[in-house]
Amino acid sequence: MSLLKTDAEPAKKPSFLDIIISVLAALFGVQSDRNRQRDFNHGNPVIYVAVGAVFVILFVLTLVLIVSWVVPD
Predict the structure, then answer these.
(1) What's the pLDDT tens digit per position in 29-72?
(2) What would the pLDDT profile of 3-13 be if each residue is shown by its tens digit?
(3) Looking at the domain assignment, is residue 1 inside a domain?
(4) What's the rounded Cα separation, in Å, for the pair 15 and 71?
(5) Which domain holds residue 23?
(6) Are the CB atoms for 35 and 66 separated by under 8 Å?
(7) How many independent structural domains does the chain possess?
């Protein structure tokens, strides 16, 4: 019996939730190699760039909002 896992099932196209999870994992720097390979082989790069840009904009706006609450006028 082999302890090595083989991926017998073909990789499917990532769903929108898979894309969001992949982008968040990549932004935090914890993307798994298997998911990265799936994204590069079966994903549309335009979607990943767009979702990544949206998350970066939301992150920056959140920081601006927090700073505006903390720093007095």
Answers:
(1) 998 999 889 999 998 999 999 999 999 999 999 999 999 999 98
(2) 555 555 566 88
(3) no
(4) 41
(5) 16-70
(6) no
(7) 1
Specify if 65 maps to a domain.
Answer: yes
Is residue 47 assigned to a domain? yes
Residue 23 in any domain: the answer is: yes
| Tokens (6 digits) for 55 | 């998350």
DSSP 3-71: -S----SPPPPPPHHHHHHHHHHHHHT---HHHHHHHHHHS-HHHHHHHHHHHHHHHHHHHHHHHHHHS
Q: Is residue 2 predicted with pLDDT exceeding 60?
A: no
**Placement of tokens 């082999």 in the chain:** 2
